[in-house]
Amino acid sequence: MGKQLLFICVVAIAAASCNKELNTNQTDPNGLPIAQLKGADVFAQAMVTVAQDKLGFNISDATDNYDYATQWMQYFARTTSFAPSGSQEQMETFGLTTSFSDGNWASNYHNIYDFNFVMANSTAHSVLPGASRVMRAMLFENLVDQFGNIPYSQACQPSVTITPAYDDAATIYKSLVTQIDSAITQLSASQSTADDAADIMFKGNKTLWIQFANTIKLRMALRLVPNGDQTYAGSVISSIVAQGGGFLGAGQDALINPGFVDQNLKQNPFWANYGFLPGTTTPTQNNNFFIANTFMLNFLTSTNDPRIGYFYTKNSVGGFGGNFFGSGLTSTPQLSSIGSGILQSAAMPALLFSAAQSYFMQAEAVQRGLMTGNYQTLFQKGVEESFRYLGVANPTASADAFIAGSTSQYVNIATSPSPLQTIFYQKWVAECELDGFEAYCDYRRVGYPVIATPSQAVPGTPMPKRLLYPETEYTQNTANVDAQHQQASDLWTKIFWGQ
Description:
Elements: E1 12-13, E2 20-21, H1 39-55, H2 67-72, E3 76-78, H3 86-93, H4 102-120, H5 128-147, E4 150-151, E5 166-167, H6 169-189, H7 206-224, H8 230-243, E6 254-256, H9 269-274, H10 285-289, E7 290-292, H11 294-302, H12 308-311, E8 350-353, H13 355-367, H14 375-390, H15 395-404, H16 419-430, H17 436-446, H18 471-476, H19 478-482
Antiparallel strand pairs: 1-2, 3-7, 4-5, 6-8
């Protein structure tokens, strides 16, 4: 099953670090000459592709997305009715090669090029240039968080060079913060235009875009706090507070929806790949392949978490069953697949960033003394928002009762000996099957959750700390990638902000 193609813009793509350009000799499917394309014609499809990259494709294309992080963070496991091979085997054995990264790298850079195009070809005063600058910063952040040093200052400028040099990762981070500040300035000055119709996330609402930008900026600052430039991180957070735009709040998930319906190539990308075939109850290949991870099931059971039945389905005997990541145990019928809180419908919006994650990040910042506020209240809002997103009945009351009634240090922050640990564990739970990559980033910077055996296939081997540069860079940007002197063992070399 290939990528969904909604709001299609035909482009010519080469695989180097954004050696991509619009081909003026082609015509898009609606008959508009490529030379006449405007930013509004490209923005929606770029947003859909961001959602596809985050939410996954068919298992044969697993390297295009963040599926590896979803599995490594113990959300999914492979049913052992299938033997691991190809990229799945690489993930389970932590034997990632340069070919594993090709799709992930290319898709992010191609999207960056598209957002550059939108910035340069949008209606004056439109919300789209500022929104695209935010999205571009987020994509560069994702690349740094996976690879470290990357092409940045020369990237996605084919008229300048098709072999861009690599920039220092920490320097890129600081530049991205500046880019987000510029985006907020653009967004603040923007006005409602016809281009708003192309904004399939916030529908031209510049207030929400500014809150989203601030939330991304907060995430970048928090990455730096435990092991990076803490003074700089504190100044970034202070600047967010002073700016006054706020963060994503209650009910303000960043959701992408071009009009998903239960039809071929038009379903929500997660549903299309992990749910059911269009108009049927027939599970997709991924739905059969991926089951609950026993590590996560055990944690949810140990804390009496009522969300367990929303994350995973009950098995044939009315309980929950799964497998450990990388395990070769014989499969049994008592398995649980993806639950109704995650697979809500074929028409559900695609989640890019949850309000729950925003609140947990704010709770962390306050608990660390980097912002004023009540971290316990913010933490509680994070749990409440997780319950709301999953569709738990009476989510606020249910979440509050869950916290207050728990004696677990991983749930009840008021009695926890380590409030930060409690924040990170509940953030990890809230991101179950929704944002494995953010959980992976937290794991690398603070070490939570504690996972004694990340993969049963290679006991004693730690989880990788980064991805290797892709094969396409070695064939098409040889001198610049060779200058990084990367070795296979660098899978375990930390990103600059990691531990």
